Amino acid sequence: MLKEKIRELAASLHASTVSDRRRLHAHPELSYKEFETAAFIEERLAAIGLPYERMANTGLVALLKGGKAASSAVVALRADIDALPIQELNEAPYKSQNPGVMHACGHDVHTSSLLATAEILTRLKDEFAGTVKFIFQPAEELIPGGASMMIKEGVLQNPKPDFILGQHTMPELPAGKVGFRGGRYMASNDEIFLTIRGRGGHGAMPHLGIDPVLIACHMITALQQIVSRRANPSLPSVLSFGKMLANGATNVIPDEVRVEGTFRCMDETWRRQAHEKIRRMAVSIAEGMEGVCEVEIHQGYPVLINDDALTAATKAHAVDYLGAENVVDLDIWMAAEDFAYYSQAGPSCFYRLGVRNEERGITSGLHTATFDVDELSLQTGPGLMSYLAVKTLGN
């Protein structure tokens, strides 16, 4: 039975998958700079015997045709390969060797898992029909995102996938479990930059200047009305400001204040409307307080929408492979992911892979300096993705 063969291969390849993950974890590279990572993936694909090509400088795509019968069905499987600018605090033997760079979002897990999936399916290629496209994508962590670059360069052509699947680590979910959600799942992500200018001066004589710090404080508070009073309560929105630079002193009012933040939501129409409301409110508040405000909005990733029918099918296949007790329903997640670009291009499903182990203290969240995974997930991930691929192809 194909399912049992996949399980056996995932188990037999587990040690090498762990080795691949640790190699990647120890040598992380930032977005658009994944040169050693790409070379390693090329080496592994060559060893597996899969033809591949480079795209978007450090991205790769490989194809595998099943030999069971002629079929035009195509499924794409995607992994992201970049790391984050974080100094790792773990003391594991596979700790990052690149100062200030760390795989703190599980992309090492995604990449090693997809390499193992490629090996499993290659060994079983005579037992399924259809084509599998393996996408190793750079720069998920940095706008404009590697997904948009690879799509522009034709990764979803020749052949065009009928379905696209992706997985992401989830430290809130125990290893061995996975999670699914159909429809809107992850938020859009836009970067907000406000430059407020006034007229600086002595802190003891504020009446002679125009205080941009005060303007900025009013502005940050007032802009929250866009979420609390202008957004439809049924469509979640987040407006957060995490950086404010006012380079004055205890007795010096500066000429300029810089404020930076993020806007996230679950609806593209509201997203565009909110951008305009942010601009108008920021400019008018500054003018009303005799200052000026320049507004820059850098548009990031769109809303990630999982195809309902595909997600229902993949969830059912996951139940078949892992058991109902190991498959959970997910809530929306206000983080952003450039897999959203794939979800806009065709029926897609982006699901979560549990990596938590409380007994071993593996509980840290994504994007933290102590993030790690229970490497049991490196057996669950490749096995499940292999099974989802062949079932999605109709086998």
* Mean pLDDT, all residues: 97
Largest sheet: 8 strands, mixed
Strand content: 15-25%
CATH class of the largest domain: Alpha Beta
Series of H and E elements: HHHEEEHEHEEEEEHHEEEHEEHEHEH
Could you say which overall geometry the principal axes of the C-alpha atoms support? elongated
SSE topology sketch:
Blueprint: H1 2-12, H2 14-26, H3 35-48, E1 52-55, E2 59-65, E3 74-80, H4 107-123, E4 131-137, H5 146-152, E5 163-174, E6 178-180, E7 183-186, E8 190-197, E9 201-202, H6 212-223, H7 225-230, E10 237-245, E11 252-253, E12 256-265, H8 268-288, E13 292-299, E14 304-306, H9 308-322, E15 327-329, H10 340-345, E16 348-356, H11 377-392
Parallel strand pairs: 3-4, 3-5, 5-16, 6-15
Antiparallel strand pairs: 1-2, 2-4, 6-16, 7-14, 8-12, 8-13, 9-11, 10-12
Description:
The protein is an alpha/beta fold. The protein folds into 2 domains: 2-186 and 303-392, Aminopeptidase (3-Layer(aba) Sandwich); 190-299, Alpha-Beta Plaits (2-Layer Sandwich). Helices cover 35% and strands 25% of the residues. The chain is built from 11 helices and 16 strands. Helix 4 links the parallel strand 3 (74-80) and strand 4 (131-137). Helix 4 (107-123) crosses helix 11 (377-392), helix 6 runs antiparallel to helix 8 (268-288) and helix 9 packs across helix 11 (377-392). The protein is elongated and about 80 Å long. The relative contact order is 0.20.
